[in-house]
Write a structure and sequence with these properties.
By secondary structure, this protein is mostly helical. The chain folds into 2 domains: 158 residues, no CATH class; 138 residues, Intergrase catalytic core (hpI Integrase, Chain A), CATH 1.10.443. The strands form 4 sheets. Strands 5-6-7 form a 3-stranded antiparallel β-sheet, with no helix packed on it. A hairpin with a 5-residue loop joins strand 1 and strand 2. Helix 12 packs across helix 13.
């Protein structure tokens, strides 16, 4: 495992029970890095494959023994908190269905890679077995416009291995009043700026912690989001997409006040720092701020990412086009935004029913 100057992991290697490198997995991780896969993807894949290797060891199997049945056993092993427990309630499982499906997808990609190394390579036999039972489906290229185009708008895809049924969980959101209460409990401008950036721009925590002064243009009121691998605090964007987004006058003024009243003459390129060590703020330090604000407000059901969801949802309710929102939050493609934020809550449905005349509540 490689680390940054602050000790944050930035390179991943999977070891077996004897602390020996699992060469097939390590080679696959290096392959992902060569393709410049997002850091979070590489990290998640490393953890998923470590669990897969642990499962194979415990059950006396190897990479060539994989099949749909074996992966189904893995999914059950991965989700259940103990071998003698079969959880029937989602909240009682060790891992969610979405996390398990991500692990199954990582394993499928891993076996595709092993198969590409040649017929006699480790895992090639397992790949053939998965391919024999692979499921082919057609996924739309674009779903923004309905009833436009024909079958050529759909491309066939092959899914290796089984997947669990998807459960669409309701996104956690905050009300304006709750956000205001959080802001009033912030102890300084630095913490308030962190919250305001997430709430008014939808930036991810990795993007916020990676912000440098050169990225902020107070005259144009813009923020440049760059994907950098050299951040000593390990701050990373989820993807490698960069872009420039606007910021409100309130956030712009808060940043200027923060620089004059708290930051002063500190010599650091990073916007968010630890004032005692003058080092860039880490993920754990940001999490400590959130934990303190949860205790202060008595609201424990939110995170920085909740503020991102709230920003997108409020923007949609205000009528901002979905493609504009997708650009603002730097999603890699429009479909991601559509899939994640096409939700409507009860009040949204009520307003639409009244708007289009289905309901009459004038009396």
């Amino acid at each position: 495992m490689g680390r940054t100057e602050s000790g944050t992991p930035n390179r991943w290697t999977v070891l077996d029970d004897d602390d020996q490198i699992v060469h097939e997995v390590n080679r696959f991780i290096q392959y992902l890095l060569s393709l410049e896969a997002p850091d979070n993807t590489v990290r998640a894949t490393a953890y998923d494959l470590r669990a897969y290797c642990e499962f194979l060891t415990q059950t006396g199997r190897d990479f060539d023994d994989v099949s749909d049945e074996v992966l189904a056993f893995f999914a059950r092993w991965y989700r259940n908190p103990a071998e003698n427990v079969t959880a029937i309630v989602e909240s009682e499982t060790a891992r969610t269905r979405s996390s398990t499906n991500r692990a199954l997808a990582s394993i499928a990609s891993f076996h595709r890679y092993l198969g590409s190394l040649g017929e006699g390579s480790v895992g090639a036999g397992g790949l053939r077995r998965l391919q024999e039972s692979a499921r082919t489906y057609r996924r739309p290229r674009v779903t923004v416009l309905d009833n436009v185009g024909g079958a050529d708008r759909f491309r066939p895809r092959t899914q290796l291995g089984p997947r669990l049924p998807r459960t669409r969980s309701r996104l956690k959101l905050l009300t304006i009043q709750q956000v205001h209460e959080i802001l009033t409990q912030c102890r300084d401008r630095r913490d308030r700026l962190l919250i305001m950036l997430a709430f008014t721009t939808g930036m991810r925590i990795g993007q916020i912690l990676g912000l440098r002064h050169e990225d902020i243009d107070t005259r144009q009121r813009t923020i440049r989001i760059e994907s950098r691998e050299s951040n000593p605090n390990g701050a990373r964007s989820k993807g490698r997409k960069s872009g420039t987004i606007p910021m409100t006058e309130q956030v712009n003024r808060l940043y200027i006040e923060y620089m004059h009243e708290e930051y002063g003459y500190i010599d650091s390129p990073f916007v968010f720092i630890n004032f005692e060590t003058i080092q860039p703020m880490t993920y754990s330090a940001a999490d400590s701020i959130i934990q303190r604000l949860r205790r202060k407000t008595g609201n424990h059901r939110w995170s920085i990412h909740t503020l991102r969801h709230t920003f997108v949802t409020l923007s949609r309710r205000a009528g901002v086009p979905i493609d504009v929102i997708s650009n603002l939050v730097l999603h890699s493609n429009l479909q991601t935004t559509i899939d994640m934020y096409s939700h409507l809550d009860v009040e949204d449905l009520r307003k639409l029913l009244i708007k289009y005349g289905a309901w009459d509540e004038s009396s």
